[in-house]
Amino acid sequence: QLQLRESGPGLVKPSETLSLTCTVSGGSLDTTNYFWVWVRQPPRKGLEWIGTIFYTGATYFNPSLRSRVAMSIDLSNNRFSLSLNSVTAADTAFYYCARLGIPAAGTDEALDVWGQGTLVTVSS
Amino acid sequence: SYDLTQPPSVSVSPGQTASITCFGDKLGDTFTCWYQQKPGQSPVVVIYENDKRPSGIPARFAASISGNTATLTISETQALDEADYYCQAWDSSTIIFGGGTKLTVL
User: Fold this and answer.
1) How far apart are the C-alpha atoms of B29 and B14, rounded to whole Å?
2) In this complex, is the C-beta atom of B24 within 8 Å of any C-beta atom belonging to chain A?
3) Rounded distance, CA B35 to CA B29, Å?
4) By CB atoms within 10 Å of each CB, which of A77, B7, B65, B98 scores lowest?
């Protein structure tokens, strides 16, 4: 059974870089059947897509965050990462990683497996 | 990208049918999904590819699309259905979420 787990600092200072890792167990990131996604949710607010990465390293980012976001994938350790620079209090949120199916690959087009989420607070 | 608009809240009596709408200019051009999120938990997909239910999701959950509006319908609503519900679609390679609807079962 596939599981995703986010990890990283829970507190980041303003203007610094937020870095999170999503470790996958029970399945492989090295697949043509799925994308891998980061989503965030400020406390008591809605969901916001951050970006998507494929096993090849190809990425797609939310236009509103594109200038500050980077994502990478580490197939040997079965994990992918998020980096968000120049953070402010507005970046305080629960950060989730998730799996996205690809219909052309025969998988369901949905974010069908989510991590438990990790709260990152931006504060000095 | 474009916006997906949901009502902030919907109320329903136990045993009745709840309907949650999602409006977007380009809905229908791509698949729509619906997610349920209970307090303190991660979202769970309840509908994918417009109207399909994942295994384990009760048949009480259904969805449809008409023009630019997607609708999630929960029949015979139960107290355990009380949650936030989010619609989600695509615009090219970007993922878009609606603002979410808080379903209250009174």
Assistant:
1) 34
2) no
3) 19
4) A77
A46 contacts B88? CB cut-off 8 A: no
Residue from B27, B31, B97, B98 nearest B69 by CA: B27
Q: Which two tokens stand for residue A87?
A: 């953070």
Pairing mode, strands A93-101 and A34-41 = antiparallel
Per-residue pLDDT of chain A (124 residues; tens, 9 = 90+): 999 999 999 999 999 999 999 999 999 999 999 999 999 999 999 999 999 999 999 999 999 999 999 999 999 999 999 999 999 999 999 999 999 999 888 898 999 999 999 999 999 9
Q: Which two tokens stand for residue B23?
A: 């409006």
Q: Do A49 and B95 touch (CB under 8 A)?
A: yes
Chain A residues with beta carbon closer than 8 angstroms to that of B40: none
Pick from A109, A116, A119 the residue to mutate for testing the B interface (most B CBs within 10 Å): A109
Within 8 A by CB and 6+ apart from B80, the residues are none
